[in-house]
Amino acid sequence: MKATGIIVEYNPFHNGHLHHAAQTKKQSGADVLIAVMSGQFLQRGEPAFADKWTRTQMAIAAGVDLVIELPYVYATAQASDFAKGGIALLDAIGCDSFCFGSEQGDIEPFLRSYSLLEEQRDQYEHLIHEAVQTGISYPMALNKAYIQLTGNADGFADLKQPNNILGFHYIEAARKMNSRIRPMTIQRIGANYHDPIESSTAIASATGIRKAFFEDKSIEELSVFMPEASVLALKRFKEETGSFGSWERFYPLLRYTILKERPESLKRFAEVTEGIENLIYEAAKIEDTFEGFIVRVKSKRFTRTRVQRMMTHIFTGFTWQQLRSFQAPSYLRLLGMSANGRTYLHHQKKKIELPLISRAASLNDSMGKLDIHATNMYLLGLGATRLKKEFTTPPIYFG
Fold it and tell me: Has keyword RNA-binding (predicted)?
């Protein structure tokens, strides 16, 4: 059986994701669609809107055949490491290709951009270093150096666009690990990443959908932007938890976590760098909302996303020492499957390159224990009184 892969968050699963999944399977000619999906915390440093099992239900109902969890250490990482973890898992489970949505819509510019940066790696890194010294953020420094090398010439990928950036890193990760997987991309349609919802279209960004929920739009009002299975799954999740995951919901626990530390001890948490620990501590003393806190801490140098990732690691207790101890994914955690996905696993079981784990009780190494801990902290943030869901929830199965 031929498999193609995608790397996703589904926060939540909407009509744009449905288009991506269907087109990926169609254009790749694959029999099986495999999604590597972030768990309870996401790449932009946020708690997931709904837990990983709810988002797995959405995905399997919409035609994804297998959902594999992207471990916390990669799911909450900067783009290059996020991509590295996702591609490694797709490679290990035997995908022939992977496909990402992009503003570019054509794979060739990405391949040319990768070749250029590899050929001029020393000059590129020198330009990045020069740009960082001016006080701009690292992502801005990367883009400035890239523009200097390409001269904005036609034929290269536009790496100012968020999905293009991730797509480039997927290709970079695959090339550097000598993966056999063939890269593909499809044109992103409808809303851009940060766009608000528009009543004139059935395609909205996940950011826009979440924002509308938190502005008291009902699930029914937003159902036009999502498949019916997603709407039903979100209703069940809200009935169980009372609300959706967000930093505003989690902030009282985050604030307590920050203030029980001393500023100097905050430096041990992953991504907390360059003296920002004092600002974090002082902002937590003053601000009683997460939005007020983040506005006080973020800056041109420390973007909102970067600060949110710091907060994720402080909240979960994830340290620099832990971060530096992980080199590659050590298992494939199965979150859900269709009947077609189950057949694929049966045929591939002797070829899969990492242990396939379906129960949390089998997550015995440090990476797996970190995933369990992250789930416990996520459930605590939602107000759960029992933290056994990781051990009591089997893989989702739609036969």
Answer: yes
